[in-house]
Amino acid sequence: MDMQKCTIYVRAYKRKTLQGLSSVTIKDLADVAAPPEVKAKVDAMRIFFVPDTQKNGRYIVTIIDIINAIWKEYPKADVQSVGDPDVVIEYRKKPPKTHDVWEWVKVVGLCLIVFAGATVAIMTYNTDTSLGKTFIILNRIFTGRQEEQPLLLTIPYSIGIAAGILVFFNHFGFKKITDDPTPMQVEIKQYEKNVEDCEIESITDKRRGEP
Asked: Which residue spans traverse the membrane (predicted)?
């Protein structure tokens, strides 16, 4: 088999975080499928050099850059891209420091903020819809008794809110109820995708000399 005429499949990553590397190879940025000898050479090809290794930065490598690098070595190869068209390189000169105490402080603070916000939202909803009066009326209709605190309805309602939150967010403590992604995870992934697309457009504009 003529290795120069083989088919090479390249699946570029959307984002790659690198630490302390001055040069980047194709293996760092993409998965490659090709005959073993070709794959080994393609994986080792240097595709990018970090301009300044003394500071953190974001850079972009396009699939065109990767294909051109492969064609220099294998000009007759059929290179197929099956991944993202651009790779965002997030370069860090050293691993970020983690502070366990500070992380717990942020988690607890965020939980308190979310708890307070959810409490106010539920109370506001109950007030706007006059839910308390509605429970009193429903209790009188079904039981024939006039009660200011119809526990027969308010207790199941409170339990239902808690159960609904658990089912909706698919978490109980540190454990997931099912393997499906939670709505929060979906929103975070969508946010990360939007940020990556914005970064790619911004870096591409800078490379073109556009403001």
From this structure: 101-125, 151-169
